[in-house]
Structures are given as C-alpha cells and as structure tokens.
Write a structure and sequence with these properties.
Helices cover 38% and strands 19% of the residues. It has 10 helices and 12 strands. The chain has helices at 49-66, 106-114, 123-134, 194-197, 199-212, 220-225, 235-243, 247-271, 287-300, 320-335; strands at 13-19, 23-30, 35-42, 74-81, 85-86, 91-92, 117-122, 143-148, 152-158, 161-162, 275-279, 311-313. The strands form 3 sheets. It has a 5-stranded mixed β-sheet with strand order 3-2-1-4-7. Strand 9 (152-158) and strand 10 form a beta hairpin. The longest helix is centred in the C-terminal third of the chain and has 25 residues, at 247-271. The N and C termini lie close together (11 Å). The structure holds zinc ion.
Amino acid sequence: VVARKSGQLNPACDIGIDIGATSVKAGIVKRDGRLIEKAAIKTSEIQGPDHFLTLLETLIGQMLKDGKIEKRTVGGIGVGAPGWVEHDKGIVRELTNIPDWEDVPLAQRLEEGTGLKSFVDNDANAMALAELHYGAGRGHRNIVCLTLGTGVGGAVVINGEVFRGAHGLAGEIGHITLDLEGPECACGGRGCLENYVGNRFIVENAVKRLEQDSQGAQGALLLNMAGGDPKKITPKMLSEAAYKGDTIAIKVWHETGRYIGIALAGLVNLLNPECFIIGGGVAKAGAILFDEMRKTMESLAMNDLGKETPILEAQLSADAGIIGAATLAMGCIEKG
Ligand SMILES: [Zn+2]
C-alpha cells in the first residue's frame, strides 16, 4: 500500500478501468460520478500481463495529461475484470481475454507502476457499485444486480457493500442451476441460468422455434428481418420483431423472462433485496422481457414478497464499467 504523500490534496477524482472482451476502457471519474476523460486499448493487442501493465501506465499518464489533472488530486485506481477476482488480495486469478494470465497481483503491480492506490474487483461488482451510487440503486442499501449479455453477470450488495463471499466468487447468479438435466455449462455445472438467457442461447432458441414452425406463419417477420437466414438473427432483431407482433420472437422473450424470473424468485427468498437492477444488452428488450420476469418472480417468491420487490432497469450506459471501477477505488480509499 502506497502511503499518502504529504501535500496531497483531498481526492477530486479516481481512475476506473474496465477490462472487456474487445476493449479495455479507462476513464477519469469525478467524485460526483462524472466521467471527464476517456481512453481505450484493444484487448486483442495485449500480449500478456507485463505488456498490459505497461500499456495501462502509458494510458493513465496520457489521460492525466490530456485532462490537465494533477496526480495528487487522484484518489486511486479501480479495475473491473471479467472472471475470478480476489478483491481482498488484489489478485485477478482468471482472465481469458489476455494471454498467459494466471493469478496476477494486479492491484500491487499497478500501485508500483503508477504510485496510486489500486483495487481490483469482478466487473459485475464494479457495475453494481456504479448503479448503487449514481444509477437505479440510489437510495438503496440492499440490491441484487444482473447484467444480461453474452454471459450473465451478477452482484449482491448488502448494507451498501458488495458481498464477495469466502473466495471472491459470490454473486455468480448466471450459474445458478435451473435444470439438472439441462445442457453442460462452461463453468462445469449443468443447466445454469446463463445456458437459457445468454445472448447465444436466446438466438438458438429462436432458430429452433423457426425450424419447428413448418408453416412459417409464426416467425415470418423475424426471418424476414434476418434476410431469410436464421443464423443472422440478433437479440436486437428479436426485440424489434417481438414489438411488431412476431409470435416466435414474443415466445422467445417470454421464455427468457420466465427463466430469469425463476432465478429472481430464489434470490428474493434468499436475500429479500430492496430491488433488482437489470442491465446489459439483452435487458434492452424492455417490457416484453421485464413483465414476464416480474410475473414469474411474483408467482414463485414466498409470502407475496415478489410484489414488494421492484425490478428496475439499469440507468448507466456503456460507461458503467469505468464509473463502477472508479467508484470501487473511491469506496476503498474512504474506508481506509
Ligand atoms: Zn454455469
């Protein structure tokens, strides 16, 4: 841990870094949540952990220079990484997008390289912090967040703090088993939520239904939008088709909503949160998905508690990852 140098001002901002599959986004975030500088590098160009750290240090230096920000006004650096992160130890254990990554003590190495206090966390946890402080979670202390995209990310916030569990793996809502007979999951489990509501599976569901629709009457609109090629269907197309009345697209979203609703009901019974916050690309399907989620959750949760648990749409956009990572740093520094 780097000691605060004498003469350092009260922190005015923090640096957030969001490691994604296609790009690593970095930004400087004011303590009111405003993103004032932004930069990115392509994930595919990163050759390994050492190279990554060198690139990050350059990127941070450049952002500070561009924004005319003095380093002594920066509180610290937060990093949100997809995969297994041990926040307390500052170690990112698994990171599939960058080669040769294994148990990298990222927080310590960033501190050594930049002289700024550094912290790491799972990207879904970082996003939950952003929503809690600046988005749909404002005013709440007990929330559960889900990010619906290629995978399903999850985070649990209890009494205003991210709950990370014994080994940093808490909140993996996407890997709650829904069906013991279901498909094998990449996590080693079977029939996980992610296997039914991840991007790829939603599209596969539509393709399967189109194949079974021998008359071609139910999914004509959807198929037309995909130029006649089911392989070209995207979740965005599916939501457009659904709102235009395509029967297959509607059925796919209803089924997706039901699966998520089952998981939410379980979470209501386990945690009794104040609300759920759902974000990510798939959540953009809106009411057609959310109504079914809500209905299913309400029908399954104990003691009508489902009716008392709002399901809110995430408010922060694509920058939520950067803002969340910076919020992580802010929170850790304030705790001391
Ligand atoms: Zn799984």
